[in-house]
Design a protein that fits this description.
Layout (H helix, E strand, L loop, with lengths): L11 H11 L8 H4 E11 L7 E3 L1 H9 L5 E14 L4 E12 L5 E13 L2 E9 L1 H8 L7 H4 L2
Parallel strand pairs: 1-6
Antiparallel strand pairs: 1-2, 3-4, 4-5, 5-6
Length: 151
């Protein structure tokens, strides 16, 4: 299925936290195995130039193949899961920390992923992140909201 899994090492912490969050609801070993062939992924809140709609597992694989050229995640953490049996939906809240590949500048973000399960595979995924955190990291400046996060 995956030509070169090493192309995705920068996303390993993301894969592991999603696998943990969907354990018991989906079948498959690796993140990509959890996805239906015809999965629909919508990046609802994202950054300019990033695709907002992806159709198909292979298309998502190719999109994620390039992630490591920009960011490398060191960890994903603070997982919270909310499951709705009537809608077969899992809402995952989580955070990430890593670095901008070209500069080594710190990068962190928070996410909400709304995942619809059908036949024990991810059929649909709606993803939300904070684009201002992406801009700050790429511009090599602290994210101003981080001071509010300490507590």
């Amino acid at each position: 299925m995956i030509d070169n899994i090493d192309d995705f090492r920068a996303l390993d912490p993301f894969f592991r936290i999603i696998e943990e969050g969907l354990r018991g609801y989906t079948d498959g070993e690796h993140f990509f195995d959890l996805l239906a062939e015809d999965v629909i992924v919508d990046f609802v809140i994202t950054v300019p130039g990033y695709p907002r709609h992806i159709a198909g597992r292979q298309s998502l694989i190719e999109l994620y193949r390039g992630y490591g050229a920009t960011f490398r995640l060191d960890r994903c953490y603070d997982l919270r899961m909310h499951y709705s049996q009537p809608t077969s939906t899992v809402v995952l809240e989580y955070s990430s920390a890593g670095k901008v590949v070209g500069t080594g500048y710190p990068y962190s973000n928070r996410y909400i992923s709304v995942v619809t399960i059908k036949d024990r595979k991810v059929a649909a995924w709606r993803d939300y992140l904070d684009p201002l955190r992406v801009f700050a990291a790429l511009e090599g400046r602290p994210f101003e909201g981080d001071a509010d996060d300490e507590g």
